Amino acid sequence: MPITVLIVDDQELMRMGLTMVLDAQDDLTVVGEAADGASALTAVAKLKPDVVLMDVRMPGIDGVTATSKIVESDSESRVLVMTTFDLDEHVLGALRAGASGFLLKDTPPEDLVSAIRSVAVGDAVVSPKVTRRLLARFISDDAAPTRDPEMLNALTEREREVLSLLATGMSNAEIARSLVLSEATVKTHIGRVLTKLGLRDRVQAVVLAYETGLVRPGV
Predict the structure, then answer these.
(1) Burial class of residue 184 (count of CB atoms within 10 Å of its CB; 0-12, 13-18, 19+)
(2) Which of 20, 44, 147, 179 is 20 to 30 Å from 141 by CA-CA measure?
(3) Distances from the Cα of 190 to the Cαs of 10, 26, 97, in angstroms?
(4) pLDDT digit string, tens, across residues 122-177
(5) pLDDT in tens, 170-193
(6) Nearest 5 degrees, angle CA 10-CA 18-CA 25?
(7) 10 Å Cβ neighbour count for 52?
(8) What is the rounded CA–CA span in Å between residue 143 and residue 11?
(9) Contact partners, residue 75, CB within 8 Å, separation at least 6
(10) Which residue stretches of the chain are H helix?
(11) Cα 7 to chain center, whole Å?
(12) C-alpha distances in angstroms, 4 versus 22, 27, 52, 60, 125?
């Protein structure tokens, strides 16, 4: 079955261009378009797309709010937000709301297609280092945690170590070398962290590590 995609953008030309690129792929199909967040929510409920390409800056219900509502509805659809600027507070808001990653609007077509495929199978497509840079931009060193640090008590000491390294932008292989573990073991630990903390993917794990104060900007 092809991966189904909903395109949400207030610019018609952008929607048309994305549709042409995606429909040219044998394994992707655009099942709908929406010009704003309100229409997107209706389309997600009706069409149940695998992936939602979501513009973050739109009139009315913006992409951040729409992303939050999609995640809160327990929809199986995963959201990939699009923006013009990589250091964008709207993107950070979308990641906090549960987006599986973000892309710049000038991303090459082949990278866009690859990102959609990755998100569809449950992977995050934003480098943790990029997410870390975003968080460091908007979270100050002396800011109090915005999430209760006690929620991390559900983790074992090893799982906290893995989460800390993950939040610094390390790959599974780098974490494995640092902790002298196999990559398979690291992957298992990350899976347990996501499950225990109720997170969708690595991006949300990085965000939470900052918001609980487990990792601080510049550390």
Answers:
(1) exposed
(2) 179
(3) 36, 32, 20
(4) 777 776 667 777 777 766 656 666 778 899 999 999 999 999 999 887 888 899 99
(5) 888 899 999 999 999 999 999 999
(6) 155
(7) 30
(8) 37
(9) 44, 45, 48
(10) 12-23, 37-47, 63-72, 89-97, 109-120, 128-138, 157-167, 172-179, 183-197, 202-211
(11) 16
(12) 10, 9, 9, 25, 17
- Per DSSP, the three-state class of 9 is coil
Helix (H, G, I), strand (E, B) or coil at 53: strand
Tokens 């609980």 -> residue: 212
Tokens of 17: 């261009």
Strand-pairing partners, residue 34, are: 8
End-to-end CA distance of the chain: 44
Q: What CA–CA distance (Å, rounded) separates 169 from 127? A: 7
User: What pTM was estimated for this model as a whole?
Assistant: 0.77
